[in-house]
Amino acid sequence: MYLYLYNSENMDKLLHVKEQENRSGFREGLVRKALQDYCEKEQLAISKELLREAVIERTEKGKPFFTGLPAVGQEGAPAVHFSVSHSGSWWGCLMAGEPVGFDLEVIREKVHYEKIARRFFTEGECEFILTAGADAFFDVWVRKEAYVKYLGSGLAEGLDSFSVVERGCLQPQVLSTKSSTDNHLPCYVKPLEIGIGVKGAYCSSSGNPVKKIYTLEGCKE
Questions:
Q1: Which end of the chain has a smaller Cβ tally under 10 Å, C or N?
Q2: d(Cα 96, Cα 81) in Å, to the nearest integer?
Q3: What are the beta bridge partners of residue 215?
C-alpha cells in the first residue's frame, strides 16, 4: 500500500467547492491521480480506459469505493481499496489491495481535548490523554478515526466500543471493549509520519506496512 499526500494553503476552499456535473472536481482528480500511480507501481493489469471510467461511489454510511475496476481473487474482491482524509492544508489518500482506513489531523490549539476524551473515549484512553496531554489526544483520535473508516460503519457503534490504549500505552491492535466477540478483530492500527504538527494513522486487518509516501505535485488548483 502507498500513501499519497497533497498540501496547499487553499485546501479548504478547494475541497468544499460544489462537485462538477462531469465528476472532474478537484477531490476526485486527486484520487484518480493516486489511483493511476498506484496501479503503475503495483503493475496491475488495468487499462487506462478502465481507470478513466472507474466511478467513485459511497456506501450508505459514506465509505468510498471504486466501481468499474476488475475484481481479483476467488471471492471477487476489488483490485484497489482506498481511504481519504484531510485536515487544514493537508489532504491524503491511502491506496491498497485490501480494505483500509486512514486519517490525518493537524494538531490544533484550543481544542477541548479533555472534555472530548471524557465524553467519547474509553476510560483507559481518557486516563492516557489526561496524563500525556493534547498530543496524546491526537494520537488516539487519528487511530480511532482510521479504524472507523476501515469499518465504514460511521460512528454508529460509538467510539467507546473499542480502544487503542491498554495499560497506559498506545497499542498496535484495536481492542474491543464489548463483552461479545468483535468479528472485525484482530485489526492493526499504525502511525504515519505526515509532517510537522500533523498526526496520521492507518488501519488494516493484515498490518502490512505502507511501502512509501508520495506527494501529488502539479495538481491544478
A1: C
A2: 5
A3: 5
Least confident of 25-34, 90-99, 187-196, 202-211: 25-34
| Residue 100 · residue 81 · CB < 8 Å | yes
List the one residue out of 167, 176, 161, 170 whose CA is nearest residue 138. Answer: 170
85, part of any domain: yes
Q: For residue 171, what are the domain limits?
A: 2-215
Q: Could you read off the pLDDT of 106-156 as tens digits, one per residue?
A: 998 888 999 999 999 999 999 999 999 999 999 999 999 999 999 987 765
* Domains contained in the chain, number: 1
Q: Which of 40-54, 72-86, 94-108 has the lowest mean pLDDT?
A: 72-86
Q: How many angstroms separate the CA atoms of 129 and 38, rounded? A: 36
pLDDT in tens, 22-52: 445 778 889 999 999 999 999 988 888 888 8
Is residue 116 one of the residues assigned to a domain?
yes
Provide the CATH number for the domain around residue 166: 3.90.470.20
220 part of a folded domain = no
